[in-house]
Amino acid sequence: MTPDDLRQQILDLVETYAKANWPAPPFLPGESPVPVSGKVFDGADVRNLVDASLDFWLTTGRFARNFEPAFAAFMGQAHALLVNSGSSANLLAVSALCSPQLGERALRPGDEVLTCAAGFPTTVNPILQNQLVPVFLDVHLPTYNVDVNQLEAAVGPRTRAIVLAHTLGNPFDLGAVMAVARRHNLWVVEDCCDAVGARYGGRPVGTFGDLATVSFYPAHHITMGEGGAVLTSNPRLKKIVESLRDWGRDCWCEPGHDNTCGKRFDWSLGELPAGYDHKYTYSHIGYNLKATDMQAAVGLSQLKKLPSFIEARNRNFAYLLERLRPLERWLQLPEWLPKAEPSWFGFPITLRPEAPLDRRALVQGLEARHIGTRLLFGGNLLRQPAYKNIPHRVVGNLEGADAVMNRTFWVGVYPGLGKNHLDFISDSVAFLLHCQ
Predict the structure, then answer these.
(1) Structural domain range at position 210
(2) Residue where one domain finishes, among candidates 244, 272, 295
(3) Is residue 220 among the annotated active site residues?
(4) Could you tell me which residues come within 8 angstroms of residue 407 by beta carbon, excluding any fewer than 6 positions away?
């Protein structure tokens, strides 16, 4: 048999193996786990993974080259740059705004960035890692996004950018945010790690700001295991992000390729000798944050299923919302803006102060029934030990962030859950509240 014949035989067997090894388990209420999130995959995903591994091209390659434009098109952007995680995507997006190549618009140490006090740490961390100053605004309940009523007042003499996440797939008020950004000439980074497929005013989130980021961790809308991407339609920002991702080099050749520019030994940059090899010329203090082609292979297969994943998430959310409505006297249920079309990552719940038990008791009761729960990430980040002595500025009293920290949690709506799981979640919440 030829290598191609053997490869085909291996890949066919891989799909057969996947069907045999990962059958759908029966659901036994109270015994089976009800996760908040998880990877949903099939034999086609495993086939792609093994196909890439048989190339033994262990860095980015043919699958990454196919994934990046396909995902960019889905997100409504010109460019998608694949990276090793959503956190790295955020680091690259903020770092790109500090590039000297942006001239007077480059962010400099001590410049301020508006962000939300309640969220995931790696939305905020790149601000600090680049020696910028986060300006924390409160969160609005029950959308769990930034309170835009404070946005204009938050702008100061050194405010240069806005970095915000679409919380749990629920778009923040892009109309208000972009109006402030235009008025004050601010950069905008949209963290879409939880919000792939969400829209605002009929337009995909991630297309409003200068840069957008996504994550492909198993919990997210599609998975590569690890992975993420930076999206932009700005050619200059694309080149800067690519340089920062790829060791900071000035060259843009893909791994294994040389002389894409056609003048590899004809450049004269910095104080280097004329003709210094462009592959070893560095224009940024960069990193190596590339993903592997095996990750990209899984992502490319997952991308075909993404519309159905989004549909399932939103269907599960709508079903759970109706099941929990009878409990609204005790639960503050999530809401979204009229122009927003969420792509739900999870179902957030805030216990009202008059509820018969506190969040800790309710969460422990659900976990005892094997129903997975999560808090809304870091709550009020300024209460976290890591942020005790950071340089920052606060606008308002952060009452909403404290409420999230004390009374909010979320449960799953990911495509691996069906009505039987959601019924068990809602029945369990009702039982635990009523039995007090």
Answers:
(1) 49-295
(2) 295
(3) yes
(4) 350, 351, 352, 353, 358, 359
Q: What's the CA gap between 115 and 267, in Å, rounded?
A: 40
Shared domain check, 314 and 349: yes
Residues 6 or more apart whose Cβ sits within 8 Å of residue 256: 57, 61
Taking residues 26-34, what's their average pLDDT?
A: 96
Q: Please indicate, yes or no, whether residues 61 and 180 belong to a single structural domain of this protein.
A: yes
- Considering the entire predicted model, what is its pTM? 0.96
**What confidence category does residue 176 fall into, taking pLDDT thresholds of 50, 70 and 90?**
very high
pLDDT (0 to 100) of residue 327 = 98
Ranges of beta strands (E only) in 173-253 are: 187-191, 199-200, 203-204, 211-215, 228-232
270 and 369 in one domain?
no
Distances from the Cα of 194 to the Cαs of 271, 321, 398, in angstroms? 44, 19, 23
Q: Do 362 and 214 share a structural domain?
A: no
Greatest C-alpha distance within the chain: 79
pLDDT classification of 94: cutoffs 50, 70, 90:
very high
Q: Are residues 121 and 160 in the same domain?
A: yes
Last residue of a domain, one of 256, 273, 295: 295
Instruction: Work out how many domains the chain is built from and give that number.
Output: 2
Q: Could you tell me where the DSSP H helices lie in 97-167?
A: 121-129, 151-154
Three-class secondary structure assignment of 127-138: HHHCCCEEEEEC
pLDDT tens for residues 289-335? Answer: 999 999 999 999 999 999 999 999 999 999 999 999 999 999 999 99
Answer whether 229's CB lies under 8 Å from 82's CB. yes
Q: pLDDT band at residue 212, thresholds of 50, 70 and 90? A: very high
Do the domain assignments include residue 396?
yes
Do both 113 and 229 map to the same domain? yes
The closest of 296, 297, 251 to 277, measured between CA atoms, is 251
pLDDT band at 23 (very low <50, low <70, confident <90, very high): very high
User: Which pLDDT score is estimated for 262?
Assistant: 87
Question: Quick one: pLDDT at residue 324?
Answer: 98
Q: Kindly state whether residues 170 and 277 are assigned to the same domain.
A: yes
Structure confidence at residue 436 (pLDDT): 64
The answer as to whether 235 is a domain residue is yes
Helix, strand or coil for residue 386?
A: helix
What is the rounded average pLDDT for all residues in the chain? 96
- What is the 3-class SS of 331-382, one letter each residue? EECCCCCCCEECCCCEEEEEECCCCCCCHHHHHHHHHHCCECCEECCCCEHH
Query: Which of 166, 220, 392, 421 is an active site residue?
Result: 220
129 and 263 fall within a common domain: yes
Please name the residue that has the structure tokens 């997006």: 93
